[in-house]
Amino acid sequence: MNVTRFSLLVACLMLCTVSSAAERAQFASSTRPPQAETLADKKLLLSFQGKGSSLAWDAGVVKRAYETVPALADNQVIVTGNSSGSVLAVYFSCFGFTQTSVEYAAYRIQHADTRAIRGNENAAKKAGELLLDKPTEISPENLKEYVAFALGVSDWRSARDIAEVVRRSRVRPHYPLMIVAANKEVLDNRAPGNALSSKDLKQFDPTNFSVSWKPDVYDFYRSRPAQFTRENPNLRLGASPYIGKACTCFVDQSMFDLLKRIPDAERLCDLRLVKTPADLALAIQASVAEPSYFPPVPEMDYQKLYVGDKLGQAGNTRRRSYVGGFIMSLTAQDARRMLPSLRVLGTGVARVPLPARELLKSWYLVDLQQTADLSAWWADMEISIPREVQQAIVNRDFSAQQEFQAGYDRATVCFNQDQGLPQYVVPPQYRQPAQAALNNPQGASIVAVGYSAGAQNLPTMRGLGSLLGGQKVAAVKQGK
Questions:
Q1: Which of 67, 146, 315, 335 has the fewest CB neighbours in a 10 Å radius?
Q2: Residue 42 above 70 pLDDT?
Q3: Residue 462 contacts by C-beta under 8 Å, 6 or more apart in sequence?
Q4: For the residues of 345-374, what is the DSSP string, one character each?
Q5: Which of 15-19, 52-56, 152-156 tops mean pLDDT?
């Protein structure tokens, strides 16, 4: 048996079973997650940015990052993700960053069966079905292999469904986690008619990602409560036009304790506490349930939902379901405002074409370009996908192995130059430290923390600086 095959076998045994006493103790300890204060020494926020079925790119980026950024090997990292990026975010939250976990992820992602998902990414076919008002969503069970990978279940083929995968899993989030998903009932804007028909009754506020009734609509419904209930069975009419947050962030206990300290008027999302394999699977399914990809995913445990300043309630929604992570392509703002010393690394995102953006806006109110540019403001480095590579991926000219290598090579270039930024950014309204921000003593020189220090904007788009390790320096010396 050669070394590579042996190392993969060892990786499988290490990651997909919990047999030793030490491992059992480690998993048991996950029921006592760290308090928010322990996050103050984190150095890097790694955001797995969704890009459909092209997870192999992210796996290549992560492999190169592990070789180059010591903070990963030291697990001084907060992992966030949206859409398909949620798969890797959950995996590394459970298993951390080691040579074994990184190599195993690279292997599994490159050899995953993507046929069903890629078949549903055929733009021409999907457009035709939408014009005919036909459903385009495929069964969530096509995610079974990915959910099993993230949850450390090796024998996913014998599992009848995702629910059985969850029952077999013993993982818990050991490291800080944040996954975003859009709130369907809050955002729902679709009207009967053609694919682009919309109701135009609500308005989205990009300042804090909140959604409200338009003033005249709210006044109309206040005087007609029976009509409101009949036309909006999943909503409650509140004491003001405010409906709720456009998205929910699935978070481990440490991030929950941290982010709930941000006033609701400033925080970008509701919070959903994640503790169990079922919670982790729900986070993945909620974030990948993009419109036209997979059907909406219902909330399964309202006692873990934090809306406003209360745990265990759904706010002005009578029910909660999720429709994908498209709303926040780089999930960083709230975490960065609470941990000002963090650097932010994004794995790269593919730009959504105009027709798809218009479709999303007509269904769910949000201009995807606007929210993407607001999110991108927080990137210190984004491993952007070159246009020719993106086109090759779209045309399916690349195998998973080629995608992996392209991500690895692009990350090498960005790390060697300590440079890689989104093409467009828009400054968000809240770009100062939150009042309750935690100060990292090692980063005191980076920024004065707290409003008492004045309305100082947090620095962004800086590169990774001192977080880059010796391999980057060696590569530069060698002229690579």
A1: 67
A2: yes
A3: 343, 380
A4: EE---PPPPHHHHHHHHHHHS--HHHHHHH
A5: 152-156
